């Protein structure tokens, strides 16, 4: 069986994974900027890196998985000027910025919990690591790769490029970036402070009305968006760690700047492997407010969005995401989701079918090649669609066994059951969704409410009261109103 191979964006090739300090593995994944409800696009990264996290643990590694929360420093349009995204939301809703950050962090966690995604080992917040960011900025200045201007600090891309290759990760060429920036960039707010339009902010001077600001050697201000991840990954994983992950949309400028910041401090890039997942599109277009094609996770699970034909469960969304390779685009459609729903249902039914199987005195087929196919799929750059195809082949054999069209000895049967459960549940994290049970409970309660209404219409008040009392005894309270009968579960 081959070893795990991953595609490294930095080197642009698929490489055998070798841990820096086995059996320990350090992973840093860029988390959300918490100023709005998580949407469909926010689900893909957590699902993909959850599979990586689970698989590495299965292979025997001790994984430290760090995923940050950006709660300061991410300005509108990913720029170096303008309002902080969280501060802007706080001003509009007349709340404290940390209220906004906490509310939407909770919403993000609710999504992860619903999709049964393992929590991070450490989940640092940018606002809680201001000291570390300031210290890193000071080090970059001392090494000659940053400069202070009017209370702000900028990374000197030109000075850096004399010794290092700015643009290597994203494939950008500095000369093209300079040409593309043009002189008109200097007319934007704060751009005149920069020596070069491509220089990016490490620290920004705060205006008097700016809500979030801290003391620094350069005056009151706030950190730039890129420095937070460099400082936090270094604090929790060291100057060099195994894997840095995130979406393709972060390649430039965010991850490119992370590489530059770390190189400016230590002389080497932070991660040995860079993994980037592609985007989820809607009818071939990127989700955007201007296109009115966004779908929040709450809407996805409730079905309350014009783009949705029905509500979909968290597990259906997870399975839909896993059916495409993480480096390829994934286009939303109701047809694809409904096909995912049916496919997942078949795989989950296979768990129940497998549990009922009985061993025989002989095996009519080999289990080992089927199991090896599952490992080979994951070892080839986490190829979840191929793994799912291998699971359907296992399911086919399970159904043949259930129909007495195949046989396995006890040892082989246990091996098949174990592999099916391992890859479906433990590694892909696909299980019967709790919400499905909740939906069935709701249907049953509504059925009893209907029976109670029919009893009342027939003036059978004894039966009507009995239904209400017995539901109350198990914590379900009925409330009658002009609009009908509603229930609450205590």
Largest sheet: 4 strands, parallel
Structural class per helix/strand content? alpha/beta
Query: Spans of 5+ residues with little confidence (pLDDT < 50)?
Result: 182-189
Q: What's the number of domains?
A: 3
What is the CA–CA distance across the termini? 52 Å
Say what the CATH topology of the largest domain is: Rossmann fold
CATH architecture of the largest domain: 3-Layer(aba) Sandwich
CATH superfamily descriptor of the largest domain: HUPs
> How do the strands line up in the largest sheet?
4-3-9-10
In words, what does this structure look like?
By secondary structure, this protein is of the alpha/beta class. The chain has 3 domains: 5-277, Rossmann fold (3-Layer(aba) Sandwich); 282-427, Orthogonal Bundle (Isoleucyl-tRNA Synthetase, Domain 1); 435-489. The protein has helices at residues 41-58, 85-93, 97-114, 130-142, 157-161, 174-181, 225-237, 251-266, 297-302, 314-322, 334-355, 368-379, 384-402, 410-427, 434-457, 461-473; strands at 5-8, 13-16, 24-29, 62-67, 146-149, 152-155, 200-205, 221-223, 241-247, 271-277, 280-282, 285-286, 330-332, 476-481, 484-489. The strands form 5 sheets. Strands 4-3-9-10 form a 4-stranded parallel beta sheet, sandwiched between helices. Strands 5-6-7-8 form a 4-stranded antiparallel beta sheet. It has a 3-stranded mixed beta sheet with strand order 12-11-13. Strand 3, helix 1 (41-58) and strand 4 form a beta-alpha-beta unit. Helix 2 packs across helix 3 (97-114) and helix 7 packs across helix 8. The protein is globular. The two termini are 52 Å apart. Residues 182-189 have low confidence and may be disordered.
